[in-house]
């Protein structure tokens, strides 16, 4: 079993550190994932000189490691959002997340990025009848108020969606898609470079100071000054931006890939090629590989670092609960990466301590990092299209949090308890 992403077999990261560090640029972007590259492409097209500074190889963060599942869904419910921000702003957030979902395939087509994007639809299995009933009530209410395009699938039709008897039924969301995340990252990197962005790997930013012309960034490869800075470090946000570090909570997400399976077995397990999740709080997600030969299964079996071997064991155990046919099937890959949670469970784009930023996607960043990275770039350019409902909300922290998430074991225990009783 290899301890690196399955995706790197087709789209290896690396060999991308050759751009030289300029002495001065209009815009310095910290982090070369989807957020940073999307911001860089936008400002480069706006006529600004830009350097993307990346601590490792471009793509080494979550953007070449994720499940490639694309959705329009925000974590908090419509009721929670309405209570917090009022009904109109709640609708604005939901509408913008939907716009972001629609934007991605159009963007891929316009940029000529071939990354196996499919508009697959997605299915969430309900483990308990009470969860199914709650999902059904919510689906009906959201269809009416927000136009959610989803239908409930009863137990009798479950196996048309997913080959398991574990669920009592579930919800089919039509507006879901999937892509090959590392191919997407490689395509975005190529587009940013082709439009003039320098993308410099092995170039960790270790210092960020204001200077009369903007900012002075100290890096592992020298110093660069920039008028504007965009921070795009998400789950890898560190001490260089302490105020942002206090606003994102790094959580490890793990994935495994099975060895190739027979076409018949794949057709039984995932008959429609949907993106799949279930109703547990300790989230798991699974999907077919783009060539439909393997099951890719992810989740957060622990909120602390348990390493790829133990993570694979736990994920495999849950995978075989969903699909008993996979007991004893060999795993080819096990890997992990950091996502960034926020205290309000929403992504954010904004301006703090003089720097622009986009981050906090709470594990659903393929769509939103592309979108909010672009918004951050548009904000640098001061364009009217920079407006975003996600910029107009407070980005909270917690007075007891300074970047080390000491409370995650407690959250995990609470989620485990809630999952056990099906709340
Ligand atoms: C295992 C896994 C599965 C996931 N599955 C899904 C999914 O199916 N669907 C979905 O929507 N989302 C998923 N996600 C989340 C998604 O991958 C992220 O939200 C998204 O990639 C964030 O992109 P980003 O550019 O903001 O951050 P990243 O891609 O993480 O990039 C941040 C970069 O910043 C760099 N950096 C940090 N500090 C510095 C510094 N000081 N100097 C220079 N560089 C620095 C890091 O090295 C890193 O490369 C998953 C994530 C993981 C880990």
Secondary structure elements and pairings:
Elements: E1 24-30, H1 34-45, E2 50-53, E3 69-71, H2 78-85, H3 87-111, E4 122-126, H4 129-146, E5 150-154, H5 158-161, E6 169-173, E7 176-178, H6 181-194, E8 198-200, E9 205-211, E10 214-219, E11 222-231, H7 242-245, E12 249-258, H8 263-269, E13 275-278, E14 284-288, E15 295-299, H9 307-322, E16 331-341, E17 348-352, E18 355-359, H10 365-380, H11 408-421
Parallel strand pairs: 1-2, 1-11, 2-8, 4-13, 11-18
Antiparallel strand pairs: 3-7, 4-6, 5-6, 9-10, 10-11, 12-15, 12-16, 13-14, 14-15, 17-18
The structure holds flavin-adenine dinucleotide.
Describe what you observe in this structure.
The protein is an alpha/beta fold and 423 residues long. It has one domain (6-121, 175-413): FAD/NAD(P)-binding domain. The chain is 33% helix and 24% strand. The protein has helices at 34-45, 78-85, 87-111, 129-146, 158-161, 181-194, 242-245, 263-269, 307-322, 365-380, 408-421; strands spanning 24-30, 50-53, 69-71, 122-126, 150-154, 169-173, 176-178, 198-200, 205-211, 214-219, 222-231, 249-258, 275-278, 284-288, 295-299, 331-341, 348-352, 355-359. The strands form 3 sheets. Strands 1, 2, 8, 9, 10, 11, 17 and 18 form an 8-stranded mixed sheet that branches. Strands 5-6-4-13-14-15-12-16 form an 8-stranded mixed sheet. It has a two-stranded antiparallel ribbon with strand order 3-7. Helix 1 runs parallel beside helix 6 (181-194), helix 2 (78-85) packs across helix 3 (87-111) and helix 3 (87-111) packs across helix 10 (365-380). The two termini are 35 Å apart. Flavin-adenine dinucleotide binds at residues 30-36, 53-56, 60-63, 65-69, 204-205, 232-236, 238, 240, 253, 255, 285, 298, 336-337, 339, 359, 361, 363-367, 369.
């Amino acid at each position: 079993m290899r301890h690196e992403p399955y995706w790197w077999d087709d789209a290896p990261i690396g060999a991308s550190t050759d751009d030289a560090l300029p002495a001065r640029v209009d815009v310095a972007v910290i982090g070369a994932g989807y957020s940073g590259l999307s911001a860089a492409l936008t400002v480069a097209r706006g006529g600004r000189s830009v350097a993307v500074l990346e601590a490792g190889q471009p793509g080494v963060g979550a953007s070449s490691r994720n499940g490639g599942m694309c959705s329009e869904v925000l974590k908090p419910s419509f009721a929670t959002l309405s209570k917090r921000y009022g009904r109109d702003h709640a609708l604005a957030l939901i509408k913008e997340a939907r716009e972001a979902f629609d934007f991605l395939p159009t963007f891929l087509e316009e940029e000529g990025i071939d990354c196996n994007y499919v508009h697959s639809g997605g299915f969430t299995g309900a483990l308990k009848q009470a969860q199914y009933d709650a999902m059904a009530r919510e689906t009906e209410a959201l269809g009416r108020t927000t136009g959610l395009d989803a239908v409930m699938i009863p137990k009798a039709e479950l196996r048309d969606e997913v080959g398991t008897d574990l669920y009592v039924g579930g919800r089919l969301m039509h507006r879901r898609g999937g892509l090959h995340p590392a191919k997407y990252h490689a395509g975005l990197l190529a587009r940013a470079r082709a439009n003039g962005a320098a993308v410099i790997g092995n170039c960790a930013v270790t210092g960020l100071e204001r200077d009369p012309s903007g900012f002075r960034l100290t890096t592992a490869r020298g110093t660069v000054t920039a008028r504007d800075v965009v921070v795009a470090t998400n789950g890898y946000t560190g001490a260089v931006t302490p105020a942002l570090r206090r606003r994102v909570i790094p959580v490890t997400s793990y994935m495994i890939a099975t060895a190739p399976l027979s076409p018949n077995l794949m057709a039984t397990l995932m008959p429609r090629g949907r993106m799949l999740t279930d109703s547990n709080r300790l989230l798991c997600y699974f999907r077919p590989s783009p060539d439909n030969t393997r099951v890719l299964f992810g989740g957060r079996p622990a909120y602390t670092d348990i390493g790829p071997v133990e993570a694979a064991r736990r994920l495999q155990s849950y995978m075989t609960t969903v699909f008993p046919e996979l007991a004893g099937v060999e795993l080819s890959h096990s890997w992990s990466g950091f996502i960034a949670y926020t205290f309000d469970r929403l992504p954010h784009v904004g301006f703090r301590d003089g720097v622009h930023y986009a981050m906090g996607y709470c594990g659903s960043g393929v769509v939103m990092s592309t979108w909010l990275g672009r918004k951050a770039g548009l904000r640098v350019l001061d364009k009217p299209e920079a407006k975003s409902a996600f910029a107009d909300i407070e980005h909270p922290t917690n007075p007891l949090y300074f970047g080390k998430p000491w409370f995650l074991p407690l959250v995990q225990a609470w989620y485990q308890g809630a999952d056990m009783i099906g709340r």
